[in-house]
Amino acid sequence: MNALDVSNIGRAFPVRGGLFASSKMLRAVEDASFVLPRGGTFGLVGESGSGKSTLAKIILGADEPTRGEVRFGERVFGKTTRDADRRWRQRAVQAVLQDPFGSLDPQMNIGDIVLEPLRIQKSGFARDALHKRLDELLAQVGLPAEFKRRRPGELSGGQRQRVAIARALVLEPEILVLDEPVSALDVSIQAQVLNLLKDLQDTLGLSYLLISHDLAVVAFMSSHIGVLYLGRFMEQGTRDDIVERAAHPYTHALIAASEPDAPDVHAISGEIPSPLAPPAGCVFHTRCPAARDVCRVDTPPEQRLSATHRVTCHFPITSKA
Ligand SMILES: Nc1ncnc2c1ncn2[C@@H]1O[C@H](COP(=O)(O)OP(=O)(O)O)[C@@H](O)[C@H]1O
Ligand code: SF4
Ligand SMILES: [Mg+2]
């Protein structure tokens, strides 16, 4: 069974156009569907503003979709949701964010930060049991036990992210939503944190939704990958479908931009259009080197290239073509 099924999720935000303008709808996510197999990692990749964090918040229950539903096994979060399922999600689906300490009290010590979710969910834990759990978690994320008395300001970025992972694990979750978990870290530290996440996944049997603007990070971690552009899936499939057999011109551009010897990070020409006024036809046509007339008029339907591989393009690039 899948850990997570996301079906036809849409999220539109009303935004004011200007002082005298009427409000418009910003469609941050449009008809997004994907599955995360149990024990796997679904990597969500796309440029800034493509709707990644909006999807993450909906899956975490921090935001409500305008349409569509999210399922974790038998538990359905849609038009109606059972209170028991909401409580289950508060425990079983946890987040690790880019800068988890932005919102935390710098005066709290690491031990209290890690244990806080447990204290909120279930009071009345024996002191000894809490401290045993804390020591076990710090060991799991590779931090010495004496770190529990330190404050966030005394830790490096990589150490702080290990604390954030320990905090996310304290309630024994089944799914972690990792939204740009290594984007704020030096490249040399990124690999250490990603390898820790991989080890924890194997040991604890976790399923991950991993979000990154960096295709290299997503390719390293993921069993499945979805490529988002302006809130729409351009392409999705297994890791190899996307990395070895990319069919969408945008995926090709992302791959070119992530090569170590890429000429510069702007391998994709042109600006991302405003999500308030997305291009007609294919939303990628203003930047696509393969665009033809039909792309400016007709929205491409999603095509299946194989049982696992789907692409939204009139002229997908396939090796047979
Ligand atoms: N609460 C909100 N109100 C209005 N617009 C929003 C809100 N949250 C996100 N957006 C817009 O939705 C789009 C997608 O944002 P986001 O999901 O944060 O993208 P990403 O995480 O891929 O950078 C952006 O255009 C962003 O400005
Ligand atoms: S539909 Fe046309 S514009 Fe869009 S990605 Fe495919 S070729 Fe490019
Ligand atoms: Mg984001």
Describe the structure.
The protein is built from nine helices and twelve strands. The strands form two sheets. An eight-stranded mixed sheet has the order 6-7-8-3-9-10-12-11, with helices on both faces. It has a single domain, classed as P-loop containing nucleotide triphosphate hydrolases (Rossmann fold), CATH 3.40.50. With 321 residues, it is α/β, with parallel strands linked by helices. The protein is 31% helix and 25% strand. Adenosine-5'-diphosphate binds next to strand 1, strand 2 and helix 1.
Task: Walk me through the topology.
Layout: E1 2-16, E2 23-37, E3 41-45, H1 52-60, E4 67-72, E5 75-77, H2 83-92, E6 93-97, H3 110-121, H4 127-140, H5 157-169, E7 175-179, H6 187-204, E8 207-212, H7 215-221, E9 224-229, E10 232-238, H8 239-243, H9 249-258, E11 302-304, E12 310-312
Parallel strand pairs: 3-8, 3-9, 6-7, 7-8
Antiparallel strand pairs: 1-2, 1-4, 4-5, 9-10, 10-12, 11-12
Helix pairs in contact: 3-5, 5-6
The structure holds adenosine-5'-diphosphate (ADP), iron/sulfur cluster and magnesium ion.
Q: How would you briefly describe this protein structure?
A:
One of its GO terms (molecular function) is ATP hydrolysis activity. By secondary structure, the chain is α/β, with parallel strands linked by helices.
Strand content bin: 15-25%
- The CATH superfamily bears the name P-loop containing nucleotide triphosphate hydrolases
Can you summarize the main beta sheet?
A: 8 strands, mixed
Classify the helix fraction into a percent range: 25-40%
- Count the helices. How many? 9
| Spatial strand arrangement across the major sheet | 6-7-8-3-9-10-12-11
Low-confidence stretches: none
Residue-averaged pLDDT, rounded? 93
Q: Can you tell me the number of structural domains? A: 1
Could you spell the SSE succession in H and E letters?
EEEHEEHEHHHEHEHEEHHEE
Q: How many E strands? A: 12
Globally, the shape reads globular
- The level 1 CATH classification is Alpha Beta
CATH architecture: 3-Layer(aba) Sandwich
Q: Ligands in the structure?
A: adenosine-5'-diphosphate, iron/sulfur cluster, magnesium ion
Q: What is the terminal separation in angstroms?
A: 35 Å
Structural class: alpha/beta
**CATH topology heading:** Rossmann fold
Rg measurement, Å: 21 Å
GO molecular function, one term: ATP hydrolysis activity
Protein name: Oligopeptide/dipeptide ABC transporter ATPase
Domain ABC transporter: 4-255
InterPro entries: AAA+_ATPase, ABC_transp_ATP-bind, ABC_transporter-like_ATP-bd, ABC_transporter-like_CS, Oligopep_ABC_C, P-loop_NTPase
